[in-house]
Specification:
39% of the residues lie in helices and 18% in strands. The chain has helices at 63-76, 83-94, 104-121, 126-133, 174-196, 218-230, 262-275, 290-299, 315-324, 334-337, 340-352, 370-377, 391-407; strands spanning 2-3, 6-13, 19-27, 30-35, 80-81, 143-150, 163-167, 237-241, 248-249, 252-255, 258-260, 278-282, 304-307, 329-332, 356-360, 381-384. Bound molecules: 2-phosphoglyceric acid and magnesium ion.
Amino acid sequence: MVTLQDVRARSILDSRGNPTVEAELLTKNGWVRASVPSGASTGVHEAIELRDNKPAFLGKGVSNAVKNINALRKYLVNKDWTQDRFDRFLITKDGTPNKGKLGANALLALSMACCKASAKVKHLPLYEHIANINHSARISLPIPSFNVINGGKHAGNQLDIQEYMVLPTKARTYSEALRIGSEVYHLLKKLLQNDFGRSATNVGDEGGFAPPLTCYTEPFDYIQRAIEEAGYTRKVKLGIDAAASEFYKKGTYHLEGQQLTAEQLLDRYVEMAKAYPLASIEDPFEQEDFDSFAALRKKLPKTQIVGDDLTVTNVDRIKTALHKNACNGLLLKINQIGTISEALDAAQLVKAHKWGVMVSHRSGETTDSFIADLAVGIDAGQIKSGAPCRGERLAKYNQLLRIEEELGKKARYGGALR
Ligand code: 2PG
Ligand code: MG
């Protein structure tokens, strides 16, 4: 239980230079602060991020979301809140199915701040408080998915697949995983610069390189070479986020200038999984096509098939995916649903069905490291926070180092993919 003494909010800029919401809550132990991220390749079923659509900030202002928080102040102060009651109150006040009235960005900033406020008054680390409210049986340090090559909407190159990721599944500890990610990243940089010059290692929104590659398998070859050179072949697997809704147009998938049916695209994934140590495939098909996800699950039973735009951290969409056996992994993005309680519900539901859980950042981020503590507290087992580069990405990866240090011998590393 936490008693709030004051509430305030403001608009700040995210890592892409767009406005986003920051909220602050005052407790008897002082202020806490939380800020929300923002996606670029957003799913159509995500909760609504309220934007002003006025000339300021080219339509992307969030002054209405900030006003909505300030208007809630009178209901929130001088009351005792649990996370569950706080979030239910916000959901009721909004009253829409997609949080379109007050804005999921307004609600999430408050919900995250409430979680931090409760941890603060209890003098608990945030991950431990989250573990308590989630009734977690255990906590763990997640396997990081380092997005080292960016394409799709996050980069100015020709690659259709959005993210090529390095997963140190067989590292012994989280800190070793971070070291592996960093070394592979820098060796990859050298390889790309040797072949394409320095401009090839300009980075995309998530800190990965955006080289002028066109063939969707080429990034795997470069990453594999970097992993080999670093000497980590046996410790590392690969992952992708196809973000296929972004290259799905009028019924076909536009890959490398070709138009593919879902069946043809499925064959490409199967070939990829044969040729490379591909452990995880996110959003292989567009966001309505549960059946093609399910077909891929059958073809690649050992690969993690992750729902992101498909499932949008929404229990109803996840239930459909469960029913159709469309996934065995959930991308958990707190701003897709808008409150911490609902995100915890989503994680609990899929864990009960033995899915993997990958807690995720957004391509537009702030330096708030909330999701690092979240991943530990719910024993997610996996996190993706971009490349091991750029402050807003490292805010999460470095927070995990601190948690590992604090846990000492109790620090357990890894989840489903180990
Ligand atoms: C994704 C995310 C994060 P965005 O598709 O998984 O990597 O991108 O935040 O742009 O939706
Ligand atoms: Mg995704």
